[in-house]
Amino acid sequence: EDESPPPKLKKTVSEKIRDLRVKKGLSQKVLAKMCNINVNILASYERGTVVPQVTELTKLGTALGENLRKA
Question: Counting beta carbons within 10 angstroms of the beta carbon of residue 3, is it exposed (0 to 12), middle (13 to 18) or buried (19 or more)?
Fold first, then answer.
């Protein structure tokens, strides 16, 4: 039974980013450009393979109208 918190946290944040982006009707490319981050990095955030730094979470949250740091 694997109960490691970091992957669960990554999944929660990644799902929230993806869900909010889709809900707003934004493509990854558009959201990445809005936040001045690389589209491949954004895709990694959404897959949960990379954990965004606080600065990126803030940028994404601002663009998506949500505080992602509470995720």
Answer: exposed
